[in-house]
Design goal:
Layout: H1 31-55, E1 59-66, H2 72-80, E2 88-92, H3 107-111, E3 119-123, H4 132-135, H5 156-175, E4 178-186, H6 189-201, H7 211-217, H8 220-234, E5 241-245, H9 249-266, H10 276-290
Parallel strand pairs: 1-3, 1-4, 2-3, 4-5
Length: about 290
Amino acid sequence: MKTNTKNYLVKPDGKFSLKDFSTTYNGHLNKSDGKEELEKVKDELSVLQETLYAANSHSLLIIFQAMDAAGKDSAIEHVMSGLNPQGCQVYSFKTPNSEEYEHDYLWRHYKALPERGRIGIHNRSHYENVLVCKVHPEYVMSERIPAYDDVKKIDKKFWNNRYESIRNFESHLVENGTIVIKFFLHVSKDEQKQRFLDRIEDKSKNWKFSAGDLKERALWDKYMTAYQDAIRETSTEKAPWYVIPADNKWYTRLAISQIVAETLTAMDLKFPVLPADETAELEVLKQQLLNEI
């Protein structure tokens, strides 16, 4: 059963609202059927990735953003499991280090872009600079931007300029052969609470939980506003956002995999065809191999 991507696609019309997107939708599938369908998509992704690699004309950048415990890591793991690791690059961005703070905020993300023929996955991304930094504007001070030497100066114009920079950045990537798709894993606050409790109860998952997670959870409404603003301002035809229901992890993985497959298919890539003289040379080499004693 193919995902209707229109269910998750954020139209670039400025009317986006998170409340219009479900966290629980499961495509009218049960978990067993969903897992079976996922295996089929993995086979399709394998062929599509090989074509991308062979064509060597485009790359694909997949961006994952979400609240804690929404399932980014497991979603990436399941998408990756259908791909050849040699053709993929996964980056998980943390707090910028001292070298990264010596450059503009896009610098480290540009460095991590996938080469032609490859798939790049960014677990968190340049969007942190209009998400966590918007909830905590004091973090911007570490960037030492001359015109913004005081947190009180960070105003609406500042964020609008960042949205514009991001739109321009992604447009530049697409125009130069890097296709960009962005996923927001839309988990409910109740489901996040349950997953946090599971991490506390399961000793093997204790390492995934910290007191800081609860501090950020207390700012849930501010984060939802930041996500809504960022997605509304930066979902474009060239680099669309998809809001994926994330309360059922098995369905999240299926929906993402199907959208990735659909995106690669739409690229309409082909295996390279050798020129006539090289094809003729292959026949000569073939005969040499067949004539070996």
